Amino acid sequence: MEISQPMPYHTPALPGAVLAGLDIKADGTYVDVTYGGGGHSRLILNRLGSNGRLFGLDQDIDALSNAIEDPRFTFVHSNFAYVANFMRYHGVERVDGLLADLGVSFHHFDEAERGFSFRSDGPLDMRMNRRASLTAATLLATESEQRLADIFYLYGELRQARRLAAAIVRAREQEPITTTARLLSIVKPLVKPAAEKKELAQIFQALRIEVNGEIDVLKRLLQASVTLLRPGGRLCVITYHSLEDRLVKNFIRTGNVDGRLDKDFYGNVNAPLRAVGRVITPDDDEVAANPRSRSAKLRVAEATGNTLPSRFLT
After folding, report:
1. Looking at CB atoms within 10 Å, which of 36, 44, 135, 301 has the fewest?
2. How many CB atoms lie within 10 A of CB 309?
3. Do 98 and 246 share a structural domain?
4. What's the domain count of the chain?
5. Binning pLDDT at 50, 70 and 90, where does residue 258 land?
6. What is the mean pLDDT of residues 3-13?
7. Do 98 and 124 sit in the same domain of this protein?
8. What is the pTM of this model?
9. Are residues 59 and 142 in the same domain?
10. SS3 content of the chain, % helix, strand, coil (to 5)
């Protein structure tokens, strides 16, 4: 019996490529660490037999309303940085596949009160986990000008990062920056009119990444995947910006996010993963049907069973 799709909380990117990349075994154990609306998870369950198992992790409690009622499925309300701990809690030492779709759900972009999008006014929140204390408003109110510039440059890849940070610091001295509309009034004069939507999206992306510690938790997930995947198990990661993609690419190639190679006596690379195929992007038909998938990049890797010195897993 196939698991039906509900009304879209989120439309999963690259669904066919993900299923092919995971190389699903009917009796295997899989983890979707970015459960969201359950789109990818439903597709995985449709490939599993009665003895297969699927765990879905999401730190946003809203995702619980999408939990699939199926004896083979377990929903875990947690940040995926702790995936290894929760798998041990559920008696799972090794898995056959792990999926991470690092995009933001449509649900988050479309709910003004979550503050993820510049397209509608709302509080500057941006927390994936609403129990967390740090919001985008708090970040803008408390970080130094230098740190704000670093955030915009590193996570938004914005050349005008210093000017953006300076403008925010000047503005917050006059009035707190607590809404998306207030932030837009400050930063819009500093973006190129011809690239306004792109650069505004980059500004909001940078703040979201910092608020949720997304780079740190991605590093922790990649490290956890090495211990969780059984030899031959598959890792599938969908990224949406170059910083994430570079970390994933480096980790698959070398076993660490910095790209440092560990070689044996004979000069062979001793990596715990090996790339399966090349990076996969949506085709024109998928982008037309789901424009938000246009920047998605899927990388697939297979666990080799090799281990790395502990200095490479920090």
Report:
1. 135
2. 9
3. yes
4. 2
5. confident
6. 62
7. no
8. 0.88
9. no
10. 45, 15, 40
